[in-house]
Amino acid sequence: MSHMNRPIMRTRRIGISDEAYQMLKTLKKPRENFTDVIMRITGGSTLLKLAGTMSNTQATSVKRRVKHIRAQSSQRIHSTADLGGRGSEHSNPTEMKRLLDRMRKEDA
């Protein structure tokens, strides 16, 4: 992942010798920046480690699951807002308990 695709993060300037720069440059793979090289050779984490670890089928499955979880979260946010007093249909304790039980069941 190039630095152009990374989330914005703080950067630091460091001084290194020409020899050290040339060594890093020879270790640099296509599409890597120097941060990626340093993270890779020092054992740090980088998103490039994930590249190619999933098949297209697996990636599609993960995307579907994330979409489903987001939809459930959205429903829960609306239900919680209703429990907080926005919706009069949920204002009695019996209905609140029913909704909470339903949300717990969805989480299981």
What would your notes on this structure say?
With 108 residues, this protein is mainly α. The protein has two domains: 3-50, no CATH class; 56-107. Helix content is 59%, strand content 0%. The chain has helices at residues 18-27, 34-41, 56-86, 93-107.
This entry's quaternary arrangement is: single chain
Q: What Rg do the Cα atoms give? A: 24 Å
- Residues in helix, %: 55-70%
Mean pLDDT: 78
Main beta-sheet annotation: none
SS strand fraction = under 5%
Poorly predicted ranges (pLDDT <50, ≥5 residues)?
none
Backbone shape: elongated
Structural class: mainly alpha
Distance between the termini: 36 Å
Secondary-structure element order, N to C: HHHH
Question: Which terms summarize this structure?
Answer:
59% helix, 4 helices, 108 residues, elongated, 2 domains, mainly alpha, single chain
Quick description:
The protein has 108 residues and is mainly α.
Topology (SSEs and partners):
Layout lengths: L17 H10 L6 H8 L14 H31 L6 H15 L1
